[in-house]
Amino acid sequence: MRLATRVLGLLGLVASAAVVAADSRCFPEDFLFGSTTASYQVEGAVKEGGRTPSIWDEYCRTQPGLKCANVADDFYHRYKADVKLMVETGLQSFRFSVSWSRVMNWDAETSHMRPNAEGIAFYHSLIDELTSNGIVPILTIYHWDLPIELHTQLREEGWLDSEIIDHYVEYATLLFSEYGKKVNYWTTFNEPLSFSAGGYALGMGAPGYTGSQTQAYTATHNVLLSHAQTVKKFREMKTSNVVDDRARIGIVLNADFAYPLDASDPADVEAASRKMEFDVGWFLSPIISGDYPPVMREIVGDRLPQFYGDQPELLKGSYDLLMLNHYGSRQVTSCNSKSSNKDCDTLTPGFERDRGIDDSHIVPGTRQRSKKAQQDSHCASFTGYPPGYLETIKWLHKHDTSADILLTENGWCGDDEV
């Protein structure tokens, strides 16, 4: 099967986590097994159906050795065959993302994106194909592929400009209007850590910026405000019966669990906690408490933006369920410890240096990659360690013990059977 299989599950955590811990063969009755994809990674057809380029088209074109997804899995043309494979595999759900530049194009006259009927029709057909085959659609509004024309037309470029908030809400509103009666699980963003820290601090992914002391924090701030405004719009459209009353929305956060390298060393314990707060709390804390984690306020200082006016209240509770991607666990120490493999001065200025950790240590007992996968540098971060998965779920749960958790991605890098 060309689609990478993932596990997705809705956990009423207090009850079901105990069941899973007691007997690894048991899953709650409403647990959904499924597959997850991203539009740019699988669709192909980059110049068909009215689609225009995204920042990933531009990024891959300028990165030596990086293959562009012009064809990819050719999902755009072969989705019906893939849905058939899902049925044959026994999958119950399918999470996919919408390509913003496929359903909307830049309008120079209005300086806004306008709907593209052909792109909108594609996702109607996909959703209908899924539901007619008994597969639950889970729709991701944004999986990193910002339209390149929108990115370049904004004064500060992309997520660095607060004007993007209105553009994003317009885009999300279009999707709610089109698919609101067909889709009951929605996520505003997939892994904002990956494209804010990765794309605006570390140069790892589009748009490829690095070295700034503030850009990742600014981008995240605008992402969070876009998320909050979109959830508000989603709930308004449920009230007006545009979106199905049963529909739920959240934001997908990604987290490797951080174990202290030396559990008896308070500095390592603090470093592990700092990694969790910078990687997950950065996004989770605002939607629960209305502000960033205190440790980030302390370390980052005035480089970390403030929330003003009604923004904290708009953020608080801007989710119907929590959503989690998890691929591995690490042992963590501070970058200035004797056990660190990284000198603090070598860390990229901004987010990475502020976080100030070395997370290169593999947890003993981690499932090793297959021999073939060991040759792939992209597999290095996929360090499967099942106890760490449960610890990550518990960490998320303790921040809101009443919330359901949707496990949106999990995987192991290898070509063997598990």
From TrEMBL:
GO terms for molecular function: beta-glucosidase activity. The keyword Hydrolase applies. InterPro entries: GH, GH_1_N_CS, Glyco_hydro_1. The keyword Glycoprotein does not apply. GO terms for biological process: carbohydrate metabolic process. SUPFAM superfamilies: (Trans)glycosidases. Residues 1-22 form the signal peptide. It comes from the Eukaryota. Keywords: Glycosidase, Hydrolase, Signal. Belongs to the glycosyl hydrolase 1 family. PANTHER family: GLYCOSYL HYDROLASE, LP05116P. This is Uncharacterized protein.
